[in-house]
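Worked example

This section walks through a single chain of length 119. The input is the sequence exactly as stored; nothing has been trimmed or padded.
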Amino acid sequence: QVTVEESGGGFVQPGGSLNVSCIASERAFALVTYGWFRQAPGKEREFVGSMNWNGNIEYNTDAVKGRFTISRDSAKNTVYLQMNSLRSEDTAVYYCAVTSPVTGKYDFWGPGTQVTVSS
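Given that input, the structure is written out below as tokens.
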């Protein structure tokens, strides 16, 4: 069973930065995509961005508009979401999800980490 875990959320003032991490337990999971999602109170879950096994990155441009950056450390099996110029509307629980190499769908999800942007 693959486990996924996020870390690095917290409280930050508007304009500040946070870096959240995602690590999956299965090191042999090479041909997968790591995705970042978020869900604010009372809203549906929203796609933030993703990075596939080949290093190709996609962003929800409307939501992040160049403020967020996804990167990875393959040796640590970890993917990062660097968030800059944070706004109050970025407040949400941020989730990392990993696709299954069998189904190609986001079958493995972390518990989420809270990011709160407030003055």
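What to look for: The chain is about 5% helix and 50% strand.
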